[in-house]
Write a structure and sequence with these properties.
single chain, alpha/beta, 2 domains, 9-stranded mixed sheet
Length: about 400
């Protein structure tokens, strides 16, 4: 999509207008395909493979970016702090992977594994594996790094071939839009799918998007009454940290919590110099622009504006923009702030104006990761005790 057409579709998908209504027959076909696929896995006609360690899937049902990557990084770091040894699998969007998964650790190039996996690897330093078939990525990850005892899947909610123990959905201020599946709406799966996941994290970092015309019957889990997380058992596993025992242990339905992306010190790409973000609010630094090639560039711009930075220009680029050539030539600003995801593809530009602004996901429920650690251990133990570790939840 071009930027204009993407914005046009975004507006259409927030209401049930004539365009959406005209596409309802195709949306019915999407629903049918999704339902048949899920039924095939549920009935065992298609096999779901469990890699022998717990799997957390962090995804969404809304097309485009909702803030999954910061949530993946926060989850990896939280699990490691609780004694786990995590690894990450991802699709490797925009990269021709080939028949075998690519495995890396440390500072892989975005051209080799994709921009989001490269960012996750650099920030967390945990092993990653990328392949469109996430089962192959999970197998390669365990083969190369047998010490891994939990896998976090970056996206892949609809990739049912990889059995999972916990599902976390990241959504933003758009909720479920008009509540319809593609192409009549923005959803990959019907909104009822959200009732089946373990947690729904609402990214509150972006500007509010109006949703006039949306049907009141559309399911928007962010407006539901928050409930405690579900748990597979009532007693903590010895594999968990002591604080995990204090996490909520029983309830029905997904847990609801909020997430905000908090910016940290900016880093100049050309030499690694760091400066507090507040410095860029000073008029002495001259005109400041911002650019972003992410799912919702406006979210990044809103974060900078809330930090008090006056932006004279903003440049919205397509998600996963490759930056093979500089798109910044038309910007006359003395400083250009970009996302950390874009920064890993911009070092070769040698533009002294470019500063990366890392963000960190902050969750509204401080006990959430304690619950996650506990639940993963319980569900792992239940699988292994059943003697049938493969397939979906026991």
């Amino acid at each position: 999509m071009t930027g204009m057409s993407a914005a046009w579709w975004a507006r259409q998908w927030q209401r049930k207008g004539w365009v959406s209504n005209a596409l309802l027959p195709l949306a019915a076909l999407t629903r049918l395909v999704v339902a048949r696929k899920r039924r095939a896995f549920a009935e065992g006609r298609r096999a779901a493979h469990w890699p022998g360690v717990p799997v957390v899937v962090i995804g969404n049902i809304y097309v485009g970016g909702t803030g999954k990557t910061p949530a993946v990084i926060a989850t990896v770091e939280a699990l490691r702090a609780r004694g786990w040894r995590p690894g990450v699998v991802s699709r490797g969007y925009g990269v021709a992977i080939g028949p075998t998964a690519r495995v890396a650790q440390g500072t892989p190039e975005a051209a080799q594994v994709g921009d989001e996996p490269a960012l996750i690897a650099r920030v967390t330093r945990v092993p990653i594996a990328v392949h469109p078939r996430r089962v192959l990525a999970a197998q390669a990850l365990r083969d190369h790094y047998p010490e891994i005892d939990v896998i976090v899947s970056d996206d892949g909610l609809q990739h049912l071939a990889l059995a999972r123990d916990v599902e976390i959905v990241i959504q933003d201020e758009r909720g479920v839009g008009n509540g319809r599946v593609l192409p009549a709406g923005p959803l990959r799966e019907p909104p009822e799918r959200l009732r089946e996941v373990d947690a729904i994290v609402s990214n509150r970092s972006g500007a509010v998007v109006a949703s006039s015309g949306a049907s009141p019957s559309a399911v928007d889990p962010s407006s539901a009454t928050p409930s405690a997380p579900r748990s597979a058992a009532s007693s903590p596993s010895s594999a968990d940290s002591p604080s995990a025992a204090a996490a909520p242990l029983s309830a029905v339905g997904p847990h609801h919590l909020d997430m905000r992306l908090e910016p940290s010190d900016a880093v100049r790409l050309i030499d690694g110099q760091r400066r507090p973000l507040a410095d860029f609010a000073a008029p002495a630094l001259g005109p400041i622009a911002a650019a972003a090639g992410i799912g919702k560039p406006e979210r990044f711009f809103a974060t900078l504006t809330r930090a008090g930075i006056p932006l004279v220009h903003t440049l919205s680029l397509p998600d996963h923009h490759d930056f093979k050539t500089s798109p910044f030539g038309s910007l006359t600003a003395a400083t250009i702030l970009i996302t950390e995801k874009d920064a890993i593809k911009c070092a070769h530009l040698q533009d002294a104006r470019l500063w990366s602004v890392p963000v960190k996901a902050e969750l509204s429920d401080p006990a959430f990761f304690d619950w996650l650690s506990l639940t993963l251990a319980e569900r792992r133990d239940a699988r292994l005790a059943s003697g049938a570790p493969h397939g979906n939840r026991p």
